[in-house]
Design brief:
188 residues; alpha+beta; Immunoglobulin-like; 5-stranded mixed β-sheet; 4-stranded mixed β-sheet; 15% helix; globular; binds copper (II) ion
Length: 188
């Protein structure tokens, strides 16, 4: 007697054989889900301020978040909610520092794009220590839980009392550095 399990395995093997090029290298990456086609533009250092704009994003799984860097030397780094201005762990998302010259460039040549892979709150800060950007309010959140106390306002209050910011160890981790896919808004 042939079990259902055996039939299922045989069925899968037959199907796989019939689809020799079912995946492309891009599709095979475990970090990439099904894209929604939506891209959220964030500007780090919006209009010369020490802010991300927008700084509280609601995004769906498969959305992209494209961070642009206004003049100065900003970055986009991942922390936990409880400890702003320091990496969440050794695998923290990090754009590295992206300098641009005020009056010469509207923004840094590269933007940093991440994909939203779940709906859990993700907290980010700028790791620039010159001027204490994180402590001065350069923090943001993707998918804040609006029913709880873990708010962006609270994150920023804790950041203000945090010591010197620490950069995550891996530059470019968790995203892609590339020329922006959409224009800067020009309010650098
Ligand atoms: Cu900054």
């Amino acid at each position: 007697m042939v079990s259902f399990t055996t039939i299922a395995i045989l069925g899968a093997a037959t199907l796989a054989a019939a689809l020799p090029t079912a995946t492309t290298p891009q599709d095979a990456s475990p970090a990439l889900g099904r894209r929604t086609g939506a891209t959220h533009r964030v500007e780090a250092g919006f209009a010369g301020t020490l802010r991300f704009e927008p700084e509280n994003i609601v995004a769906e799984i498969g959305d992209l978040v494209e961070v642009h860097f206004a003049p100065a030397n900003h970055s986009f780094a991942q922390s936990s909610f409880a400890k702003p201005c320091v990496p969440i762990n050794d695998n923290a998302i990090f754009s590295g520092f992206q300098p641009a010259t005020k009056g010469v460039q509207a923004e840094a040549p590269n933007a940093f794009t991440i994909e939203v892979t779940d709906k859990l709150p993700k907290w980010f800060y700028c790791a620039q220590t010159k001027g204490n950007h994180c402590q001065m309010g350069m923090g943001m959140v993707i998918n804040q839980n609006f029913d709880g106390g873990a708010t962006l306002d609270q994150y920023k209050k804790m950041a203000a009392w945090t010591g010197v910011s620490i950069s995550p160890p891996i530059v470019g981790n968790g995203g892609t550095l590339a020329p922006p896919s959409m224009p800067f808004n020009g309010k650098a």
